[in-house]
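Database export, one record per block. Field names are fixed; values are copied verbatim from the stored entry.
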Amino acid sequence: MESYKWEQLINNINTVIFDIDGVFTDWNFIYTNDGKFWKVFWPHDADWIKLLKKFNINIQCISADKRWFAITKKRISDDMWLPLEQVSEWERLDWLNANFDLKNCIYMWDWLHDAKIFEYAWYSIAPANAFYLTKEKADYVTQTNAWSWAVLEAVLHLLEKFYNYKF
């Protein structure tokens, strides 16, 4: 990455946008005969998001899971106190452009629909087990899989790379 981007980050980057399903979760949906029962979230993501917020970076979370959005809301909004929107994969780029200046955002995602959005974001991150086209377009691919330390690794990567933060 060229040095002008580093300066731009410190001066202009104001938001990190996270996918929920496939970044914060392990992708598994546990079903019973009554339907989806739960999603599995990593227990320590909240700690690392708090660290990112200390650098005055806004966080936005998005989920495409419409039918079971309440599960996601319980963890992300109610427990972690993060802003959360339900936006379908097909509407995501339009929604993001309407609500953010993507060239001033960092975007962490995992799926095929997101590979196209990486082209518009200032910096993009994919977990190690993201879809292969998404990983090819990402500026950084974590060594860890979604759910299993990927958010922690992404936060530390951003703070080390752009803020000289050492843990």
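Remark 1: The first strand starts at residue 15 and ends at 19.
Remark 2: The first helix runs from residue 3 to 12.
End of record.
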